[in-house]
Specification:
Elements: H1 2-39, H2 43-79, H3 87-174, H4 201-326, H5 356-364, E1 374-381, H6 399-415, E2 424-434, E3 437-443, E4 450-458, E5 463-465, E6 476-480, E7 490-494, H7 498-513, H8 522-529
Antiparallel strand pairs: 1-2, 1-7, 2-3, 3-4, 5-6, 6-7
Helix pairs in contact: 1-3, 2-4, 3-4
Length: 530
Amino acid sequence: MSNLSELSIQLRKLQSTNTSQIAEIDRLNRQLKILSDLQNVSLNDIKDALRAACEGEAHEELRAEVGRLKAQLDCFQASGPRGDTKSSGVKTLTEFDAEAASRARTNLELRVGELEELEGTLRQELASVYAKARELTARNTTLETQQAQQQNVIDDWERRWVEREQEEIRKGGIVARPSEASVGSYNYSEFATEVKGNGLQPTLLLRNESQSTHEMQQRLLAAETALDGERQQNDLLKQQVESSQKSYDLKLEQNEHRMQFLEGQIADLEQQLSSLYAAFEFVQQERVEERDQKFVNARWLKRNLLESDAALAHEAEEKERLSLSSCPVSADSGSYSLPSYNITNPFESPKQAARPSQFVRAAVAPPSNTSAIAQGYLLLALSGQDGPKLKSSTSPFSPHKLLSKSKLSSKSMSSQPSQSVPKFKRQYCVLHGSNGLYQLRYGNALLDHIAGVHEFITTNVSSVEHTSRSSSRNYGFEILINREDPQSPSLCCAAENEEDFMMWMTALTSVIDGSHVEHVPPREAFHGAA
């Protein structure tokens, strides 16, 4: 939310800056128009100069962006080979990629929003200019109509005046002047009308007509002057509309150039992102191959350990068979008296063998040269069985062979699906191992006999999950040997309290994801697995 609030604040600041820049651009355009009119500078030259300046600025921005991206790529290439092979390296690369992509996306969204706002402002200005042009066109049409009407009135008056003058001339030509002599022998003076008032009436009529004509001419002159003023105002408005249209075209061209530049930047960023994704996939593939190689090495090591275990068991059987052949047979029991060997060292003599309590400690507790990763009481779903126990028999046996049988029986017992609700038994469990291979031993107590072993817990192969069987108990979980194989062995467990649950989850998660590192020689790892 804080990032969104910061982005909104930046967006509002950019909007206010954009508004002030638009006002400044309008003012500069008006000044450029005035200067071009005063200095006879072509507006096209000014447009070319502005376009060249914008292209130069865009080129500098592009160079800066390319330099920054090259630096990021160099940093990525430099940190890639030295990166950690664990999952933390993958998270670092992913966060770096996501942060770079989000930063570029945010910048592009801000620029696109700015351009959209500028486009909206220009569209509003263009709409207002078109509205003014429509108003001026309507006003011009009205003035032209009024001018036509006045011109018709003037023409009518002129026609009437000409007709009146012609009529007066015609009337004046019929009446003969007193000073003129008659052309013929007949005197036409008798047809002349007597003028009363010493001949002043025609003079007054002419004066009145001349005065009305003068007034009409003055009115006509005033109407022509008003019409000229309206025409000049109309021409001025047309010039303003043309200037606004030119400025709009200039801004539109600038926006088109900027959009092309931004589209080129977006294409470059997409190409760089695709390159980064390809590099990330390559690194991921290398890590997968390295993990597979580790898994193969672990399987090879496990096979060697099993072969060594079999060889030692066979050797121990041979030695026990030789020792049993030399022991006397008890007549009461009818069985051999077998010595109790320590399970951690089958080559010890009977004199050096531990007491039964020491023998149990060697079986349940981890070997002395191997430290336990986690130990404590857990509730195990053993299907009502107590698990295999270590006991003596009349037939020849070895501790390693008996332990292997207990492992197999525990494995087969844990792999069998439970059709009913599992029965949990409280057992003391010890988790130990190294080099990606771990096992969980359990019994009634730390110094008690071993009840079973859940082995082959492998790094990056096994898993700890919450299943339907473990959901019947609080703090329940299930350990799967192979999470990709549904038929693989599993062990359903449950902790007694939250503290034990967190302790076991931390230990099991560390050994499964490989974060638990313990350098143990292969020979010691073999004794720990035994």
